Amino acid sequence: MLKPVTLRGHLVCLEPMTVEHVHDLCAAASEDRSTYGYTNVPVGLDETRRYIESALKAHLEGSVLPFVVRHNGTGKIVGTTRFLDLEVFNLPQGTSNGAIPTDDNPPSVAEIGSTWYAASAQRTGVNTECKLLMLAHAFESWQTIRVTLKTDARNERSRSGIQRLGATFEGVRRAHIPASDGGIRDTAYYSIIAKEWPEVRKNLLQKQQRS
């Protein structure tokens, strides 16, 4: 499996998620929850503990690399995000070989998701820097060829945020998975591929300077 890694920026630090983060992550999730209508965000200590344990189990299985987001200015945990759906391709054939990604055999493709922030961190520079750090790690350290981002098709706020990153809209997968509100959701898919990364990086750096 991929070893936990810390990604450091000017505004935030992405730390490997551990069970010790349960109280801080629960506190972050307990701020104003009005923006979480389409997002799976745990409620209370017990649910937050299960949320973390599930992420750590998936990491051991090789399918995710989860982080908590620490604000460098306040020192507080202000949210979480992760790499998921990690696949290694047989190149040049280009098919998934079922191998568990490792540092020596990194993922050919990845997704960034399961992202949520405390209300106090929303509409700040936190998300821009988180995406900049994660995309740089994917494309520059792993040499990943594609990063996927997806969200509930009804979540206009999330979709606008993904589009502002410079990701390309691929389409909507209908009746995809259970929704966080109890129904079945359509999922909007976006992606960034390796040749687009330099322009996306430039865009994110400009946004970072303005925030």
Major beta sheet summary: 8 strands, mixed
Helix content: 25-40%
- Tally of extended strands? 10
Mean pLDDT across the residues is 94
Low-confidence runs (pLDDT<50, min 5 residues)? none
Give the assembly state of these chains: single chain
Major sheet strand order: 1-2-3-4-7-8-10-9
- The number of helices is 5
Whole-number count of domains? 1
Strand content: 25-35%
N- to C-terminal distance: 35 Å
Query: Could you give me the name of the CATH homologous superfamily?
Result: Gcn5-related N-acetyltransferase (GNAT)
What CATH first level would be assigned? Answer: Alpha Beta
Q: What is the CATH topology classification name?
A: Aminopeptidase
Strand/helix succession: EEHHEEEEEHEHEEH
Q: Please tell me the CATH architecture by its name.
A: 3-Layer(aba) Sandwich
Spatial extent as radius of gyration: 16 Å
Domain N-acetyltransferase: 13-167
GO molecular function: acyltransferase activity, transferring groups other than amino-acyl groups
Protein name: GNAT family N-acetyltransferase
Pfam family, one: Acetyltransf_3
Please describe the topology of this protein.
Elements: E1 7-8, E2 12-16, H1 22-29, H2 44-60, E3 64-71, E4 77-87, E5 89-90, E6 95-96, E7 109-117, H3 126-141, E8 146-152, H4 156-165, E9 168-178, E10 184-193, H5 197-210
Parallel strand pairs: 7-8
Antiparallel strand pairs: 1-2, 2-3, 3-4, 4-7, 5-6, 8-10, 9-10
Protein name: GNAT family N-acetyltransferase
Domain N-acetyltransferase: 13-167
GO molecular function: acyltransferase activity, transferring groups other than amino-acyl groups
